[in-house]
Amino acid sequence: AWRRLCPSPAALLGFDCDAPLPDAAGLLQRRRRHFARPQKNYYRNPPEIERGWKEHLFDIEGRAYLDMLNNVTIVGHGHPRLSAAVGRQWSLLNTNSRFHYAAVTEFCERLAGLAPEGLDTVFLVNSGSEANDLAIRLAWAASGARNMISLLEAYHGWTVASDAVSTSVADNPEALTTRPGWVHPVVSPNTYRGPFRGAGSTGDYVATVSAKLSELEEKGQKLAGFISETVYGNAGGIPLPPGYLEAVYAMVRSHGGVTIADEVQVGYGRLGHYFWGFEEQGVVPDIITVAKGMGNGHPLGAVLARREIAEALEKEGYFFSSSGGSPVSCVVGTTVLDILHDEALQDNARTVGSHLKARLQALMDRFPLVGAVHGMGLYLGVEFVRDRETLEPATEETAAICDRLLELGVIMQPTGDHLNVLKIKPPLCLSHESADFFADMLAKALRDGW
Ligand code: PLP
């Protein structure tokens, strides 16, 4: 019965949605045999998801879940407009992106229209990792140098170059000592638990970048660029200290470097008040990278750069991606933008996000474990600590809370460098009712204990 309750457009399109379901335990066993473990906690309590509708997911055993984890499916699961647009384009044409077709022209125009003036040259790829890899190569080509400054505790992707600048210490603290020589990490501007905790510390964080630049200068090494997220995503969406990017971008540019804004997680309307995260800091980068939500789960990423930066790469090498920007990908990208606009999803992220943040902040009065509620729009982070003074991370408690939330019908995972943060990144169509359900279930999980 629950399967019929999920109004997925698949049945309307004539697909058989009533086929017998496989058995969940058997499926898990089969997957363990062949599917590489993508993440540390991948096999911890996995529901076997079969279909989705808006912000809800349904597993093959008949349970419904609220999807608060997603960050990719921004316009919601099972969107009929996307199903129809993809079905149409698949039937017409999907091919190597070497060919010319209208879909790519239209999508690039739409993307360029969303970016600040001048950042109007678009490269289309298949993921955020590829986008950041390409952005680094663009910085190298434009500067004629290799040295990149990145932030500690950041994640930019899994490909060789994007992983090199992903100086997260959670998985492997030793990795920091084995970074390639062109990566120069500086302190993460985490105002909650960074080394310069508290207000009025922008100058301290900026000083770590100027010290790094002086170090390079003393060694006679040139700078290629600086890469960062524009809101600190890894820890649940902590805004950077006021004026941080303005000061850092100015210094980087004065040293001949290129500034890269990684908007893969925090951009594309999720912050509610801003379409791009860099708007929150009042700056304009030289290169923007974007992925995740722009394809609503379909592999799609992009790099937007100024024309002269793009041309520098043409002189030094080449760029080509067989299916980056394929006709289907471009139609997905354009349709996602249409839906974001027509359903005013950025506005929804702002209003429902503010409501949810207020509800979560109220939990701080009742539960000492809730150390802080970060973020804005529908990019929020709840950070659990054992002590609000020392900020000792409540790692085991966070894992137990996520397990309890799953039993209560909410999908959530511990994240952040100490695995003590709930990063809240639901589809942007999240209703007020669903936001309240989440806040109620989190309160229940905290009340039940671990
Ligand atoms: N940049 C940021 C900030 C991310 O959060 C991620 C993915 O989590 C990436 C880049 C990599 O994107 P993808 O997984 O699409 O390769």
UniProtKB/TrEMBL annotation:
- Residue ranges annotated as transmembrane are none
What does the similarity note say? Belongs to the class-III pyridoxal-phosphate-dependent aminotransferase family.
Name this polypeptide is given:
Uncharacterized protein
Q: Which organism's genome codes for this protein? A: Sinorhizobium alkalisoli
Q: Which residues of the full protein are shown?
A: 524 to 973 of 973
